TrEMBL record:
Key word Isomerase present: no
Alphabetized InterPro entries for the sequence: CENP-V/GFA, Mss4-like_sf
Species assigned in the record: Halocynthiibacter halioticoli
Domain CENP-V/GFA as annotated: residue spans: 3-118
Lineage top rank: taxon: Bacteria
PANTHER family (UniProt xref): CENP-V_GFA DOMAIN-CONTAINING PROTEIN-RELATED, GFA DOMAIN-CONTAINING PROTEIN
Gene Ontology MF term list: carbon-sulfur lyase activity; metal ion binding
SUPFAM superfamilies from the UniProt entry: Mss4-like
Keyword annotations of the record: Lyase, Metal-binding, Zinc
Name of protein: GFA family protein
Pfam family, one: GFA
Amino acid sequence: MAHTGSCLCGAITFEISGSLSAPDACHCTMCRKTSGHFWASTDIDKSALNITDVSSLKWFQSSAKVRRGFCETCGSSLFWEPLNNSGKIAVAMGAINQPTGIKLGMHIFTAEKGDYYDIKDGLPQNAT
C-alpha cells in the first residue's frame, strides 16, 4: 500500500510505501508554534519515504535533537526528524492525501497544551 501527499502549493510531493502507524497529537510548545495548533503526525521508516522534489524543502533545527522540514514556498510544515539517526521520520497527517485509513492514537506533551482548547476524545494522554 502506498500513500501520497504534498505541501499546500504542491512544490513538494511525496510517497510513503507501506502501512501508516497510528498518529499521535503533540501539544508541546514547539509543535504548537510551528503548526499553529497541535501537530499530528505518523512515524515511518525514512526508507519508506520518497520525496519527489526537494528543491523547496527546507529544514529548521528546532532543538539539539530535532529538525523540522517545511516548504519554503508556501510554509507548510511537513516533517519532524530526530537527529540521532534512528531511521525514523514523522510525517504531518494534514499533508497526507486521504483516505489514510488510520485514526489518531494518543496525545503527547499535554502538560504544554494551549489553554484555549480541551482534549475530550477519550484517547490516552501523556503529560510529557
